[in-house]
Amino acid sequence: MGCLLKQGGGLYPRLRIGAVLLAAGEGRRMGGVAKPLIRLQGVPLIRRLLVALSGAGADEVVIVTGFAREAIEAQVSSFPVALAHNASYVQGQQASVRVGLAALTGPFDAVFVVPADQPLLGAGDFTELIGAFKKRPRGHVVVPVVEGARGNPIVLDEVAHARVLASEANLGCRHLVDRHPELVHLHETANQRFVTDLDTLSDVESLARSTGWRFELPAALEAAVQ
After folding, report:
1. Could you tell me if residue 224 is inside a domain?
2. 184-188/141-146 β-pairing
3. Average model confidence (pLDDT) across the chain
C-alpha cells in the first residue's frame, strides 16, 4: 500500500508494517448490517480506516471479506490493497485473522489486526501503537488497555504472526491476556478511540448523539442516524 507518511529517524529504525483489516462479519448484533459500510460523515468506515493506515505508514494492507463481499470490494477498489475472502466467515473472527495473515506477502516487523467497526481511529492512533510496540519491554503482541478494558487494534510481531498461522494462539479471544500472558504487552492509555466500536444500533445512535456527527446505515443510506 502506498503510504502517505514514512516514519524514520530518531532512536528507533522504521519498521516494515503490515495490516489485516477484518471486514468479514455478519453484523448479527446490528441486525445484519455490514458494519464496514456504515458511513460516518458520508465516508464508509472501511475507507476511513484505509486512509488512517496509509497515514500511519502501513506498507501493505489485506482486507478480509466475507459477508457483503461484493459491496465491500466495490468500496475499496481504488485503494492499492490486497483482498482475501474468508468463505468460513460464519465461524468467527479468528478464521478471518488467519486468512488475512496468510495473505500478507511480508516479511513484516509489525502487523496490525484491525476490526473494521472502529469509527474514530486515525493515523495518530496507529502511530501511538507502533510507538508502544517499539518500546515494549517484552511480549509479542501489543494490546491497548483503556481504564482496564482491552481495546483494538492489536499489533503482532513475527513470532505471534507465526503462532497464529500454526493455530497455536487465538488472538481474537477476549481472554487473550489471561490465557497467553507470555505473549502480551499491555499498552496502558487514556485513548478512548481504542475502545470505541459499533456492535449494535444503540452504539451508533449513542456515538451520533455524543459527537454530533452523521452516521448512515448501508441498508438504508437515506435514513441518517442523527
Report:
1. no
2. parallel
3. 88
